[in-house]
Design a protein that fits this description.
Blueprint: H1 10-40, H2 46-73, H3 82-88, H4 101-129, H5 132-153
Helix pairs in contact: 1-2, 1-3, 1-4, 2-5, 4-5
Length: about 160
C-alpha cells in the first residue's frame, strides 16, 4: 500500500481497498456485458435496446472510474485490467449464444441486479469499517445501478 496522510488507519484502508477492487472487477465485467448486449441485440426493439445497452455501458464505465480513483486515494492500486476483471468478477458469465432483445434484457438485468446487490452490501461494510466516504461512494454506485436496472427490466414488465 502506498503512503498517504489520509486519516484512515492502514488495516481499514486495506479492507476497503479489497472491497473496492472487487467491485471494480465486477463493474468492468458489467460494462463488457452491456457492450456484448449492445453489439448483438436483434429484434423488433433493436434500436431502443441497442441505445439503452450502450448507455448502461457508459454509465457503468463512470462507476468504474469512481471506484478505481477511490482505491488510489486510499493508497491502493486499482486492479483494473481485463485479465484481472475476468479472474475476479463475481458476476455470472454472459451468455454468448443469445440474440433476441428479450433474452439480452433478461441477462443484462440479472447482471445489473447482482452488481447492485454486491455494491449495496459494501455500503454497510464500509460504514461499519468507519469509512463513510467509501460507503457514500458505494451508495452512489448502487443508486445509479438501481436506476439502470429499472430502465432495462422495464422492458420485461407490463
Amino acid at each position: 500500500m502506498h503512503q498517504t496522510k489520509i486519516d484512515i488507519d492502514k488495516d481499514t484502508r486495506g479492507r476497503i481497498i479489497e472491497m473496492l477492487n472487487a467491485r471494480l472487477a465486477d463493474s468492468l465485467d458489467l460494462k463488457s456485458q452491456a457492450k456484448q448486449a449492445h453489439w448483438n441485440v436483434k429484434g423488433m426493439n433493436f434500436i431502443a435496446l441497442h441505445e439503452l445497452f450502450d448507455q448502461v455501458a457508459t454509465d457503468v464505465e463512470g462507476y468504474s472510474d469512481l471506484i478505481a480513483e477511490r482505491v488510489t486515494v486510499l493508497g491502493g492500486t486499482a486492479e483494473g485490467t481485463v485479465r484481472v476483471a475476468a479472474e475476479k468478477s463475481s458476476l455470472t458469465q454472459y451468455p454468448m449464444e443469445i440474440a433476441e432483445g428479450r433474452d439480452h434484457v433478461d441477462a443484462l438485468s440479472s447482471a445489473l441486479a447482482a452488481f447492485a446487490r454486491n455494491t449495496r452490501a459494501n455500503v454497510t461494510d464500509a460504514d461499519e469499517a468507519g469509512d463513510k466516504i467509501s460507503a457514500d461512494l458505494f451508495t452512489e454506485v448502487a443508486r445509479g445501478t438501481d436506476k439502470l436496472l429499472w430502465f432495462v427490466e422495464a422492458h420485461l414488465q407490463s
